[in-house]
Input
Amino acid sequence: MIKIHGFCHGQYGDLFINTVPARSIKDNYPDAYIIQPINIKFESVAPLFAENKYIDEIYFTENYDNWPSEKDRQYLIDQKFDAIFSAMPGHRNGEWANWWQLRHQAAEACYRDYIPIPNDLSVKLTKWFDVDRNHKTVCITPFGGNEDCEKRLTTEGAQKVVNFLNKLGYDVIHIAISSDPNLDNAIRYESNYFNAVKMILSSDALISVDTGFTWCLSGYNHPVFASYFTSGVVKKVENIQPINPNGQYVTFENRDSIAWDYYFIKLGNFLNNI
Output
């Protein structure tokens, strides 16, 4: 057995992307035993890695930015790992500012740690739990990040999406955190990450922006319609879009430049085809 500690221990999307380098290692070293670190502040995602054939065990790290803490360091020593991949990895060759121009984010998760990049860059998760299907229901996550985040829809824009979905006869469930604004005619749902994912999987589709949920739901091939904006650091946004055969992505310069007629044509066609 080759005992391995890896890989990035947050944020949400990165944790799901970790299944790509884990799969690459398992394909090349079938006797590898991979322990994935998850920082304690993201602990509610841990059940989503249960029964995953690429992740064998979870360890909750104590420190995030200042990893490893003394406790985390002692864990690494006590476990006698054959290989340790950093929980806070950097980028090779000083590529922090432009890696997204060169390769897909899942490929970068391999490349930065000198792991062979597989042909299949999709996230793989195991749906070991049951969900109740809620037909003619969609979930929305329009407010990724903090209030100043460039990836968020405006409240007005999110309300337009809800109104459009209501007109099509959909019940809308807003997967929210406490700081999110309320949206009229949308059911507000606040819970931990695992419960939120189960709620989304019970619906017909997720309507989102660039969030960790898009990466997570791609691991189940769940229908996702998401907006991406090129005004942030990443311009080549196709390299930060999850591989999902049931996903559709639309791109605009920023949240204030959304061509809503185009957006709703694309969203309507997407819903008609799921």
Q: What stands out?
A: The chain has a mean pLDDT of 95. The CA atoms of residues 41 and 64 lie 8 Å apart. The chain has two domains: 2-111, 137-272.
